[in-house]
Amino acid sequence: MAAHLLYGDSFLVSRALRDLEAENGAADLLEANTHRLAGAQVKPAELLSVCLALPFMDSCRLVVIDGLLVLGERQSSRGRAGGRTSTGGRTPGGSGNMLAEWQAWAENIPGMPETTLLIFKDGPLADTNPLLRSLLKAAQSHHLTAPSGEGLARWIKTTAGDKGTGISPAAIKSLMDLIGNDLWTLDQELEKLALYASGRNIEQDDVRQMVSQAKEANIFSAVDAMIDGRPGVALDLLRQLREDGREAPYIIGMIGRQLRLMALARDLTERGVPQGEMGKRLGVPSQYAVRKTVEQARRHSGEDLSWRYRRLLDTDLAIKRGRLNPDMALELLVAELAGG
After folding, report:
1. Per-residue CA distances from 216 to 173, 183, 194, 239 (Å)
2. Do 174 and 46 fall into the same domain?
């Protein structure tokens, strides 16, 4: 067996974990030989004891540690604060020298029994992550990033094929515009579309009719299109929301919320808060939403975000005072924001 490090896109990491377990005969182990541990709670000495133990009546022992490496980024960012959390407690792992303990722990990996399948599972990590750099010397690294552009189009086509159906290029483009590279949502929507198509190709009209739950993705894509100077795409997405029964105040409110989150994410990034902690600070549970918000915030200055937010408020006021009808107001807003 070997030690593996899986990190990056959560969908791809979960699939890679499943495949690794299947390849190594670890999918159906006895409960006594399966250990799934939270990185924030596991201690180095306890983990070493588990990894050194031989399996009981099985060919291997599976040990999966979830979310350990992101603690290295947190520990680094808090080092100057004496290992204290924002609430005054100690950093996860139980001591101020947690980072040094885990870096030293990685040296034990080569001496582990061949029957131990050790897997570290994490989300996106910075290249400077100290635990990542330590584990790269002893574990097989799998950095899994969600595809984009033509790579994402191929992924959608292949995934549709795996679900027993084909999909037209127009339908692929619609899914990419609506959802982006949120692979969890794409996989769920393709599952639903495959059932709806019932043996025939998935077409663009199917996407328009069936992909109505991806409202959050619509908002992200609409804001992306606005701030990236693509008014046509933004208008199509906003019109789709209107056709789905969403009124102009709701759409404006959602865009305003996203602009506020972007401003907050930019401030947190400038203050050195690691991305693994962003979700809690932003009050956003979805890692996809956090990642998209941080990516958007990095592309624009605070002044630019403030200007866009003021224009949004002006539009909202014009609608409420009856100076503009909602549809016209939204189209003018998109044209101005996309051209800004």
Report:
1. 18, 14, 22, 15
2. no
